Amino acid sequence: MLNSLELFSGAGGLAKGIEIAGANHTAFVEWNSDACKTLRYNYNPAIVYETDVRNFDFQCFSGVDLIAGGPPCRLTLRK
Fold first, then answer.
1. Which residue of 12, 14, 45, 77 has the fewest C-beta atoms within 10 A of its own C-beta?
2. Of the candidates 28, 25, 8, which has an alpha carbon nearest to the alpha carbon of residue 65?
3. What is the pLDDT of residue 60?
4. Whole-prediction pTM value?
């Protein structure tokens, strides 16, 4: 079984697909509090980290086989 760490997790849509594929979640990193509430409801609350990914200490995790995520998109309008 693969161990996954997910960045920019949102409410867990990608996480559900990864779970169905057979991976074990080790951590979700998400800054949006509403998304984190949903993650905590659907997954082990102890692995939900409500923080900015730039402030997350990745050294606490070993044995991660897969890093997944949905980085935020930014729309830039040009004149």
1. 77
2. 25
3. 87
4. 0.86
